[in-house]
Amino acid sequence: MAKGKKKDSPREKTDEHTKLSNKDYLAELRRLHIELVKMQEWVKAEGIKICIIFEGRDGAGKGGTIKALTERVSPRVFRVIALPAPTDREKSQMYMQRYLPHLPAAGEVVIFDRSWYNRAGVERVMGFCTDKQVDKFLKTVPLVERAVVGSGVILLKYWLNVSQEEQTRRLEARIVDGRKIWKLSPMDLKSYSRWYDYSRARDDMIEATDTDYAPWLVANSNDKRRARLNIISDLLSRIPYKEVPREKVTLPKRQKPGGYKESDYPFRNIPERF
Fold first, then answer.
1. Residue 259 lies in a domain
2. Inside any domain, residue 196
3. pTM, 2 dp
4. For residue range 121-157, what is the model confidence (pLDDT) as tens digits?
5. Could you tell me the residue range of the domain that residue 75 belongs to?
């Protein structure tokens, strides 16, 4: 537990705010996107290394937050890592080994959509590892994260907190929405029934791995729009970026045709249905 902080278990809050209009949401998101681009340019110019972890229950809003965070920045700087289940070879390795190659190099921002904390969450709850393995992980990971931070990486860990009622609403929506059915797997259904097992696992995980150098940052995600704005705003406040001076951009004159004529080749144009 980070020193000087009270030991508070994250609470699944109900919404306490009026609904944020889409107009206000998009206006604030645009402002934050501009700041993210400034941060991106600073990361490139200074060779900064940033690693952001997003954890939370199924339906907590991790994917939507990551999409909002990355939709206006360069994929050459921001990389999203969402690893599949480990292979037999990876299972034989040191547990953290398959995650380490994805950590950022200079000038990169790496975002983990779930991370090595799978061991303390889904693997523990669903019986994919032993209690002894979980205990070993919880004792080891603060040491690994200390080394990561010591190497110059800015490490941010976010837990998105969603209430039982809101999680139910979101998962039920996935059942009937053809755009979201891929988000609902048999494993998600099993996990849904084990709410309090996940609560215990989360509490143990945060208590064991919340440190001064890599603290857990808990976000109320019952309101998706507010959660995205709050997380991006918090992230920006924790990174000491500066605006990098840029030369004024003026479009150059285009070349003259030089005898060029439009081709009469029968290009295969797609139908204009809209």
1. no
2. yes
3. 0.90
4. 999 999 999 999 999 999 999 999 999 999 999 999 9
5. 22-237
